[in-house]
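Database export, one record per block. Field names are fixed; values are copied verbatim from the stored entry.
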Amino acid sequence: MEPGKIIETLRKRESIRFFDRRPIPAPVLRDILESARLAPSAKNLQPYRFIVLFRDEWSEEFDDFMYRPGFKDAPVAVVVLAKDEDSYHRPVDHHPYAWVDASIAVTEMISAATAYGVGACWIVYLDAPRLKSVLDIPEDWDVVGIIPMGYPARGPLSGTKRKRRSFDDMFMNGRFGISLTEEEFMEKARRMESGTPDGRQDDDTD
């Protein structure tokens, strides 16, 4: 994919809460799941798993977790699991990275879905202990969320309408609390692009 196409795809992503009942073609769904399998994880430990449920197969008990009427029309849902014990732990404070790694995989999956025009939504409002019981999930696995997927009921993906923080508010300049404006960033990036941090070309070339 051309670099410009990647950001164009990301700008089309939006959380879809109403789906039509069209099935997702098998090769498309396979690619979406494959994107999660290929996702990076700390030390490549891959401390996550995914339970795939098709609408015509899931139980009435699972249907309760599709708490919005529109979610119930999604042709497929993916339950995302993470296991701290299997993940990388930061040496200094032993902080586990299972949820971080699982979130990266989900983001890759939703981005791939967006590229195919398939909508998705990340459900985190759920009763995790009950879901574990319904799907026979072992106690040492955490439920990260449920991702219903399908084609948007109201037409093609067009991007979220929800406001995002500004560039200045999102990025900091070298240390916490110092705002990095877009103008300052572009100046620094152009200096880097020109060859050296202060903008001078390296003379040690032959």
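Remark 1: Helices lie at 3-12, 26-37, 60-63, 98-115, 128-135, 167-170, 182-194.
Remark 2: The mean pLDDT is 93.
End of record.
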